[in-house]
């Protein structure tokens, strides 16, 4: 009775905890790249769950069927030197699983590195995302505006992020829109994303970069393109211009709130030359 009560209490506790959990962000995609990543995660989970169920099922069956109490006291097991069929199965199945997961992983990697499917014919919005201790600077060169610690993007349009850092290596990551990519001081890396659902999302630095790392986050807001265009016009007409002196102040280590400027720092402090530049790459 006590055992049953303890078991039921454990089950109820688990369901109570799970009921209060929010969805895991990487499994709640809001864009095609994130959806590809989420699908790979689900495929991996399903594959591993299948392996676990089969192995534990076989273990229970073997332990029950071949337990010592079923044999006569004078039973002696036969001498077996090997079984080619069994050895082929126990080696072949793991190899097939690894091949399957490798194909899925390589295929998805190429997909998330390219322009999102369905957006190949659209002109991407280019955003330079640069990090410093411990903040994010977002430069919109075509719109000639810049923001700090927040990012506005239009929905249903490809976004091409060009990443680099003014300090240590950081990792640009918006879990609900795609995977992470590193930002470094001597090269520019590109990340292609798109948002299909309007809303507010969390972005952060996913790579430890010092004592201020925990608060190295930014807000992402995806909106219809008409709203995005209106926001751009409002910024141009109301935001203060970004000067070289002001930008040097922003680069000083520390935390800041959200800030908005007309103009970008790209004119007086451009990013590293070329994609994958630096170190003669």
Give the helices and strands as they follow along the chain: HHHEEEEEEEEEEHEHE
Strand percentage:
15-25%
Low-pLDDT sequence parts: 277-281
Helix content: 25-40%
**Could you tell me the number of beta strands?**
12
What spatial order of strands do you see in the largest sheet? Answer: 8-5-1-2-3-12-11
Secondary-structure-derived class? alpha+beta
What's the CATH first level of the largest domain?
A: Mainly Beta
The Cα radius of gyration reads 27 Å
Q: Can you give the mean pLDDT?
A: 89
Summed up, the helix count is: 5
What distance lies between the first and last C-alpha atoms, to the nearest angstrom?
A: 69 Å
Shape: elongated
The appropriate CATH architecture of the largest domain is Sandwich
CATH fourth-tier homologous superfamily of the largest domain: Cupredoxins -  blue copper proteins
Total domain modules = 2
What does this entry look like structurally?
This protein is an alpha+beta fold. The protein has two domains: 25-66 and 83-114; 125-262, Cupredoxins -  blue copper proteins (Immunoglobulin-like, Sandwich), CATH 2.60.40. Helices cover 37% and strands 22% of the residues. It has five helices and twelve strands. Strands 8-5-1-2-3-12-11 form a seven-stranded mixed β-sheet. Strands 4-10-9-6-7 form a five-stranded mixed β-sheet, with helices on one face. Strand 6 and strand 7 form a beta hairpin. The longest helix has 34 residues, at 32-65. The radius of gyration is 27 Å and the shape is elongated. The termini are far apart.
